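Running this now, will post back.
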Amino acid sequence: MSLDFASIRAQHSLAEVVARTGLFVPAGVTDYRVCCPMPDHDDRNPSMMLHLRTDRFHCFGCGAHGDVIQWVESVYRVSVGEASGMIESRTAFPAVVTRSPVGSRDQRSTGVRLKCEAPDLERTSIQRVKAVLGEAWSYYSHGRLHDEGRRYLRGRRIFVDALETDIGEPVVGHTPHGAPDRLISHLRARGFADDEVVDAGLARRNEQSAIIDVFRHRVMMPVKDDSGSVVGFVGRYDGQRHGVPKYLNCTRTVAYEKSINLYRPSYPTLGPAARIVVCEGTIDALAIAAVAASAGRSAEFAPVAGSGLAVSDSQWDAILDLHPGAIVLCADGDAPGREANHQWSLALVKRGREGLVAAWPEGEDPASYLGANGDDGLAAILSAPAEIHSSGPRLPRRRDPALIFGRNALESARPTLIGDQLLQLPDLSPSTIR
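Update: finished.
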């Protein structure tokens, strides 16, 4: 039976639908501003305007806009049919929680509820949290959700068949579609309590006990500890909405801390000439591991990623413990990436380690470069200028792909062309690294 969308819009006002979502809307107003409740939009301004006379909404922060059906679609990330069915059910929806606006004293005047409950670091044991995370990963990486994650990677020319064969398990998954509590329902059926799911960083719950999945519309990759246990997740957004963070990490739990844990797509036994490759993005690290596995060269690469551009002292300690060889710094080929490579270089030099800055063409990153060049692209990560000075870093000659730095010279290196122009590389003159 087909849905009559026009009838649904006529019979259900925006004020009614917003109230069923859990936000306060005062009576008698025509235009009302609230903090945007869209997933992953940390809005504190508030930025969303509800036009209650015309039953339309618009967020000036993330760009979300539409009518009552699009409201439910966007807030809960469901299909138009599911959104229409939720509205027609005339029942309350799972309540959403927006952030308190800066300087706000009266929550009812801003349409904002109290913040979500944070994971309790003492309520659930680390063993039980790891059990929840392990079951969640089994769900994300099984069957059609595993296929969906692989399909996303193939669209970016990242092929993980050889890598998954090497390690004997999936490296990618996906969040379920439909209702915003699909993972929670699965975990309940497996005997996990809602408190445990919240404490694992997989669910958000407000003071009225409404609970929804944290990760939605995301390609999922697990963060593991040295024993191979899943301790957290990185979710790569695969939707089309503007203003949504590209990557979403688990919040802090008893098992996971983003300033401590590192993402590693594989744990091969590294050879004496291996390079640790520090990446800006999780997908970049996964792409390097996938191409290395396809080429039968996994022992030469140990790609890692933190939580974006920032790498903490604890993470540097963990990175440097992986292998005694040179570190390759592989941030993206844009202004923030070049600045990250600069800061990372200073961090390594201060620790007495040599390294190599890979300079990608403008707009490229390791994943896109390897997608275009395949196995041949690995040479760009292993290469360095032929002339190396132990007294300090050397400015690259034209067509050099990378800058070598550190207190010791690498024993062998060969230049490889990346792009047709000399790329702007970090300033690592001696005066900058004291």
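Residues 100-114, 384-434 have pLDDT under 50 and may be disordered. More later if anyone needs it.
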